[in-house]
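Document type: protein sequence-to-structure record

Subject area: structural biology

Format: plain text, a pair of labelled lines:
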Amino acid sequence: MIGVLESVRESISKNQDDIISDLRKLVKHPSISAQNIGIEECAAALNDVMRDSGMTSNIIKLPDGNPIVYGEVKSSSKKTLLLYSHYDVQPVEPLDEWKYNPFSGVVADNKVHGRGAADSKGNVIALIKAAKAFLDTVGEPPVNLKFLIEGEEEISSVNLPDFVKKNKQMLKANASLCFDSSLNPAGMASIYAGLKGLLYLELRCKTAGIDMHSGLAPIIPNPAWRLVSALNSIKNDGRITVDGWYDSVNVPTKEDLALLQDLGYDEKMIKKEYGVKELIGNVTGKEALKKLLFEPTCNIAGIQSGYTSAGSKTVLPNEAFVKLDFRLVYDQNTDDLIKKLRSHLAKRGYTDMTIYKLGAEEPSKTDVNAKIVKAASVAAEKVYKKKPAIFPNMWGSGPDFVFTKILKLESVWTGCSPSYANIHAPNEFTTIKNVLDGVSYASMIIQEFANT
């Protein structure tokens, strides 16, 4: 008797041209959430792909945000799995560094090229076509499937928490599977049982009504220097120095550290890929990995003030601002940390600083022995013929907390994109093999979860 994986793979092989065609269809729609470009059109195209793949789906418009595409595939099982990914993408600048038009969906060298091919439209297609493979081969999936595909992940999923809170009954499930990640460089699936949180702030300092002659610098405060001074008070010698910042840090646990023993980390590859001469503190191996997974961060994402064009201009600027992203670990809370930052600045005399919250995502955590984590692990080994890399946490962020904290679900984060696929950069791509294997991978996670 032919097994589930074999029958699913036969279906995938038979329909691979349609699978890649649908991915290209989505890549051709810009869907840049940060610039509000092409969102509605891409949501409509995604809805068509989902319906054409045999599921019921609809576009749910949000009062103040980008639409969510929601779909369902019924099963005779009592179990339900909630599937998450996103259709929005990052901006494409600088355009002159792209080999192909970022929204052409060109297929070349067995790759699909374009913004969103890897992050995360290839993952979206894998989920959809996994459901279709079950429908085509056995008539129904082994569990009920609910699809939640949002259009704001790249802008911190700003409206997703409220949507989930208002639709708990519709989204009721036994676990969640978030498909928005990649394989590691060795071709192993990466499985995450938690994600870092994110607090994205703008800190702005204004000291005058207009820009001035720099000769006035002895008597009029420079907002750029004020900002530099404030930043030095927030972080020093690699550690965040805001009072109480680490009070709620509850990781790593003994179980987390034990899991690290099975994980390797090649800092040499990171240096080569990004052109970095050395890592902070010259950390290597597991020590570098431990810092990545469990250390809160304060990163300057951008800073601006005064004259920055060609040539010289002796000016005393009237305003300066910095964009900061803080990565949070379990169980820090974004509202609590903003209060602590405001108090920190006020106590040190920085009353001329204004803080604007641009995005926030709470950290999340699921027991590594949870059924959905086990299902992903077993499925990964069957599909990729290698034991997966199971991480207790991800160094990046995402809206996993809406599943773990709002819906109270066990959740796992994984995906099928290639490693180093130029996500968030020019020349993003995925491979045809990654997509087709991803359909198999998603199918087997669903099947293994049904078996638990």
